Amino acid sequence: MDYIALLGASLLFALQFLFNQRYEKRTGSGLAHAFRFSLWTSVVGAAAMLLMQGFALNVSWFSLLMAAVLSTVSILYTVCSMKAFATANLSVYSTFAMLGGMLIPFVGGLLIPSRNEELTWTKALCCVLLIVGLCFNVRREPKADGDKKKGLPPLFYYFAVFVLNGLSGLVSTLHQSFPDWAVDATSFSMLNRALTAVFALVMLLLSRQTPLPRLNAPKGKADVWMSMAAFGLICTFANWIVLLTLKNVDASLSYTLTTGAVMVFSTVIALIQREKVTLKQWLSVAFSMAGLLTLVIPT
How many angstroms separate the CA atoms of 193 and 90, rounded? Predict the structure, then answer.
């Protein structure tokens, strides 16, 4: 059941990108837009978790600290993502983000003593196959017309998203590794979403920006709010499912399974939308499927 739940979370992770894209088409991809997106999606997610708890909330110093760290990482990741649009190759960028989101929790799960996870040859083979599959996702981005791109070098952003996305999974794993100090997954999800909303609101106020979304077109306000609400619910529930399963499933297995399944589901969604799927994308799916199949091999 935990593996089925992780596949469900992977499908949600793949679907959330659709609503992120809808939001960016209506508003743009500037920092202020990103903070507004973080603010309102987090408000929706926090409200959903609070409703699930029956408006009761459990708090511990450890969970509050972990939630604050996770929220800070999320905000920094948002900032790097928005800044990278001007300088980085976005396919390489997303590949580094997924690699970090898989490899850092993978290693963390093996090193955290309380988890007692073992490195098996099937986990190692799965990891290698997924890395190869992710590399097939890299493609050459068309060069923008005009002057040379300004900003920090792309290598900075590649390293940043590798570390930041990986830290998100590592912090979640750490929280679930100390049940005597930690609150339940629903309360932790609510704390994380609430703190992320507060941090995003503070950033908007410091930059003297309105918290309300601004459109780059006269119409589409309802579409923007719907996209933020859908993303907030989908993202929050996907991460909540991962938190629940981390109590029973090795982190070194959970994050590899989720990464591979997201790659497969993303391609299926592209086919449903009648987008052109290239040979490299099919090879990426093939290696991802091979990696996932290794996880069912008895060790």
Answer: 26
CA distances from 230 to 22, 23, 84, 192, 223 (A): 11, 11, 25, 18, 10
Residues 198-214 as b or e (16 or more Cβ within 10 Å = b): bbbbebbeeeebeeebe
Provide the whole-model pTM. Answer: 0.87
User: CB–CB of 197/39 below 8 Å?
Assistant: yes
Measure the CA angle with vertex 114, ends 120 and 123; round to 5°. 15
Candidates 158, 49, 179; CA nearest to 112 is 179
* Confidence (pLDDT) at 218: 65
**Residue located via tokens 């743009």:** 28
Residue with tokens 């590399």: 135
DSSP 198-239: HHHHHHHHHTT--SS---SSSS-HHHHHHHHHHHHHHHHHHH
Average pLDDT over residues 259-288: 83
Write out the DSSP string of 95-161: HHHHHHHHHHHHHHHHH-GGG-----HHHHHHHHHHHHHHHTT--PPPPPSSSPP-SS-HHHHHHHH
Helix (H) or strand (E) holding 265: helix 251-272
Residues 6+ apart with CB under 8 A from 285: 133, 263, 264, 267
**What does the alpha-carbon distance between residue 188 and residue 183 come to, in Å, rounded to a whole number?**
6
Interval 107-129 mean pLDDT: 88
Contact 87, 154 (CB under 8 A): yes
Report pLDDT for 244.
92
Highest mean pLDDT among 7-16, 60-69, 115-124, 143-152: 60-69
Residue 236's contacts (CB-CB under 8 Å, 6 or more residues apart) are: 44, 45, 46, 48, 49, 189, 193
What separation in angstroms does the CA of 226 have from each of 48, 230, 293, 295? 15, 6, 37, 37
Element (H, E) at 35: helix 31-52
